[in-house]
Amino acid sequence: MVYPHPYYDHHQPAVPWPDDYDDSEPKRGKRNPVVAASLSGGVAVLVLAVGVLLGLQLSGSDPDAPDAERPSPTVAAPAPTAPAPTVQQEPTARRPAPDTTRLDRSTYATVTQREFALMAKDPDAWAGRKIVVYGVITQFDSATGATSFRADTGPAPMMDVYHYDQNTVITAYDADMVTDFVEKDRVTMYVEVQGAMTYETQIGGSTTVPSLMANIIESTSRPVPRPAPLPASLPDAETVSGNQLRSIATSDKPMVLATMTDTWVPQLSSKRLGLVAEGRTWTHSAILTEHQRLRQTYPGARLLWSGDWSTFSSSNFWVTIAGSTFPTAEGALAWCRSNNFDRDHCFAKLVSTTRPVEGSTDYNE
């Protein structure tokens, strides 16, 4: 078959086309329209599948979940029926319980002078203990800071600040506690012992002192001077004389028990407080004076308290006896006569702790 060339040159001879022109290229098989359509459809399905997979990957694992307009990368939204999670506060917001203990003054112990000295000697051994201290602020400036200061301290309020002799570093629990305090202020502090602290001094070298955390700090009024104690009122003469009589009788009793018990003795006097006799009312002073006179005149004389002996009918008399003893009443009466005593001022008396009153007294005629 011959096709005229569009630009046919009538002067050129006609060239015949190959007989198989209408066939496909010799080296390529002819395409089947059905196969071509199948390939095109497969490619389309593959592209669609890839698109679906990419979409699922981007939208999440749940293909039914709607696209989130504002995705949160870290917090998943809780289920509608689940309670909202509680966000815990920082530890600094949970201090009521420690603060209650910190401000409870009853938890702070008062210490003696010795205990305070032991704390100052070894603060580390006292670390954690809560005590009450008193003192005067000695340094509170830019060098110490807003919450720390130095103070001379002691276990009790002092009249004179020079009696506070323990250098101490105090750290306030917070700056507001010490805003109004300055050097030379007297303070009462409820503190917790932190231990020993070493710091450099301004004159060179270092010093180690107790370090205390002040949980409560307040101003201490200067103690009111106590008036000098009045001298104890002197006991009156009656009290002194009565005490002397008791002392003499107590001192004489062992000797009487050892050498005069169950013997007859001359009784020279028998008086009690308030007795009206011989034209006077007898007092302790008068009884003591008479006894001392008789004791000086008759060596060996003794003083008895009638209540200590069984042969006296009354238990509240001071009795003076001579030092001589006799086996019978007559011997004692003879002694009275020989010393010129009348019947009423000297008679025979049996001294005993077991004999009865009856028959224990005899008189001169």
Your description of this structure?
The structure is a single chain. The protein is α+β, with helices and mostly antiparallel strands and 365 residues long. Among the domains are: 100-219, Beta Barrel (OB fold (Dihydrolipoamide Acetyltransferase, E2P)); 237-363, no CATH class. It has six helices and twelve strands. The chain has helices spanning 33-59, 96-102, 113-121, 237-259, 284-297, 329-338, and strands at 130-139, 148-154, 166-172, 186-200, 206-219, 263-271, 276-277, 280-281, 302-305, 318-321, 347-351, 361-362. The strands form three sheets. A five-stranded mixed barrel has the order 1-2-3-5-4. A hairpin with a 5-residue loop joins strand 4 (186-200) and strand 5 (206-219). Helix 4 (237-259) packs across helix 5 (284-297). The radius of gyration is 61 Å and the shape is elongated.
